[in-house]
Amino acid sequence: MSQLSFSSFDVSLMVRDAQGRYLLATTDQILEAARQAIEHKMQRGEAFSSPAAVKEYLCAKLAGFEHEVFAVLFLDTQHRLIEYVEMFRGTIDSASVHPREVVKEALRLNAAAVIVSHNHPSGNPQPSRADEALTQRLKEALTLVDVRVLDHIIVAGSRTASFAERGLL
Predict the structure, then answer these.
(1) What is the sign, positive or negative, of the torsion defined by CA atoms of 65, 58, 104, 137?
(2) Over the stretch 111-168, which tens digit does the pLDDT of each residue have?
(3) Both 49 and 104 in a single domain?
(4) pLDDT of the residue at 48
(5) Closest Cα to residue 62, out of 32, 37, 92, 42?
(6) Could you tell me the residue range of the domain that residue 49 belongs to?
(7) 114/74 Cα distance (integer angstroms)
(8) 112 in a structural domain
(9) Do residue 153 and residue 127 come from a single domain?
(10) 1 neighbors 27 (Cβ within 8 angstroms)
């Protein structure tokens, strides 16, 4: 049986196979459904109402991957969502991130600000020294084109770590 546990409740979903039979959904299918639901909920032009809303959005998008994914929320001057982009995929414990590509995408989307994020499949949201160095490099590169880095959020399951909240930006 494929179930997800969320501290106080369990989730089981049914999916229809090619022959029309109903089967229990896999964990990956449940997570993909959650990603699609949050994508539908947070459409282009929507403003994030709080840091908690950003974390909830990013947890729905990045939790459950068995490999690292580096994503960027591109925002306008009012911090409304322009686009969420999963820019880089890596292995179970690292992802190569190229600041040049993030800058190019920010310029293409005419973003005024970004929130960068990645997941830690290990379940530990603690930022590494490499995470801190990358954040500084991204901040320096994006500052050159007048794009602000508002935060770097690490997602580890349902737990998160915010660079802004820790004073690391």
Answers:
(1) negative
(2) 999 999 999 999 999 999 999 999 999 999 999 999 999 999 999 999 999 999 999 9
(3) yes
(4) 78
(5) 32
(6) 44-162
(7) 5
(8) yes
(9) yes
(10) no
Cβ(74)–Cβ(85) below 8 Å: yes
Using alpha carbons, select from 80, 79, 71 the residue that is nearest to residue 35: 71
Residue 123 identity? G
Dist CA 75 CA 109 (whole Å): 9
Question: Which of these, 112, 117, 119, 128, lies nearest to 157 by C-alpha position?
Answer: 119
Amino acid symbol at 152 = H
The pTM assigned to this predicted structure is 0.74
Burial of 54-88, coded b for 16+ CB within 10 Å and e otherwise, reads bbbbbbbbbbbbeebbbbbbbbbeeeebbebbebb
Instruction: State the Cα angle at 71 between 70 and 76, rounded to 5°.
Output: 150
Which whole-number Å values give the CA distances from 2 to 15, 34, 158, in the listed order? 12, 15, 18
- For the ranges 27-36, 51-60, 118-127, 136-145, which has the lowest average pLDDT? 27-36
Residue 167 lies in a domain: no
N residues, the chain: 169
Give every CB contact of residue 36 below 8 A, 6+ residues apart in sequence: none
For residues 28 and 88, membership in a common domain is answered with no
